[in-house]
Amino acid sequence: MTPSAPQRTPLYDRHLALGGRMVDFGGWEMPQQYSSIRDEHLAVRKVAGLFDVSHMGRFRVTGDSAQAFIQSVLSNDVSSLIHGQAQYNLMCNEAGGIIDDLVAYRSEEGFLLVVNASNREKDLEWLRAHAPADVSVEDRTFELALVAFQGPDAERLLPAEGLDDIPYFGFRRGEVAGVSSVISRTGYTGEDGFEIMVKSDHVGDVWDAILEHGRSAGVLPAGLGARDATRLEAALRLWGNDMDETVNPYEAGLGWTVKLGKGDFTGREALQKVKAEGPRRSLVGLKLRPGDIARHGAAVSADGRPIGVITSGTHSFFLGYPIALAMVEARSLQVGDNASVEVRGRGVSADVVKLPFYRGSARSLSEKKESRHG
To answer: What's the sign of the alpha-carbon dihedral 271, 276, 280, 282?
Structure first.
């Protein structure tokens, strides 16, 4: 069977014009980098960077039973959401394994789910198989494009009005560079910023305007390399690396997304048992010495005994040293401990550190939200 060619976002030609180095990611041809991962990474941390994230799946869920259906297939409690609020969520199987992580947006029309690119077709099939007759699950991925403008200066530099009234994990309709958009204060870098959903045939105008407006301030287009490094510094999990259908939310350190008291949902019984007994594994953060970059799947040992594997690893240009997440036996490592990680066939020293590795401008927004609801 001949594998299908990677799909392209509406911004593909612009990526090429900007010098984007294109790679296959989740079945899509996406820019790994433009100028350099380092420059793009630092732009996101110090000013702002612009990402094309149109490869992510976008589903519209509507119907009389839409809320009850979403509540029954996601781990978090969507009944607390009002129109204009978004929520990080997990979709689990009956064994409690993570089918996907996603963001659910509550609007007057129903719900919008943004899912991982590599899981789009699987998720769509799973949701439609479980949806009652009066609920429609519509794939809007190719009609709506999505870009992310992330960084401490994103609010100041986005060509749009009235952004200060959008709370963390809030969204509303508005105009970006005169183009009708849905603007949400969400992202995957640890920084403040916005994800902008716009009709696919107009996204090029929005992309061009953001880059032009922010160029003199140091805004850069940013690729997958910078996106991975920034999300890892913020200890944001990546499906397929840090979690999958063999990993439950408590093992991934995402137990806070599981609301066992909300009523029945897929995987609830299994997750109740995990919480009562405690997870068998846990995700920990590791700081390594310069040059020792740990890769996904590398062995992790302590006291001469294998205890787990690296799930994500990279060099942090912003922090100045390599960092990694590792899935290890529960209670085998504590903050302050030392572990051994296999790097290029040899064991190297790694320090167990508190997560996240870096707290960006999104953290202050989250804390403000928590203080308002505390």
So the answer is: positive
Strand partners of residue 23:
30
Residues 31, 25: Cα–Cα separation, whole Å: 9
- d(CA 79, CA 72) in angstroms, rounded, equals 11
CATH pick for 280-374 out of 3.40.50.1010, 3.30.750.24, 2.40.30.110, 2.30.30.30: 2.40.30.110
User: Which CATH class, in words, describes the domain spanning 57-139?
Assistant: alpha beta
How many H-runs (helices) and E-runs (strands) does the chain carry? Answer: 9, 19
* Adjacent-strand bridge partners of 288: 350
What is the distance between the alpha carbons of residues 105 and 182, in angstroms, rounded to a whole number? Answer: 11
Tell me the C-alpha distance between 161 and 176, whole Å. 8
CB burial of residue 138 (10 Å; 0-12, 13-18, 19+): middle
- Say if 57-139 and 280-374 have the same CATH topology: no
Condensed to tens digits (0 to 9), the pLDDT of residues 268-327 reads 999 999 999 999 999 999 999 999 999 999 999 999 999 999 999 999 999 999 999 999
Domain coordinates of the chain in residue numbers? 12-54+143-233, 57-139, 280-374
DSSP tag of 51: E
Question: Do 29 and 54 contact (CB within 8 A), yes or no?
Answer: no
Q: What is the DSSP letter of 131?
A: -
β-pairing, 299-302 with 305-316? antiparallel
Beta strands, E only, 241-337: 281-288, 299-302, 305-316, 321-329
Q: What amino acid is encoded at 250 in this protein? A: Y
CATH superfamily of the domain spanning 12-54+143-233: Probable tRNA modification gtpase trme; domain 1 (3.30.1360.120)
pTM of the model: 0.95
- pLDDT bin (cut points 50, 70, 90) of residue 57 is very high
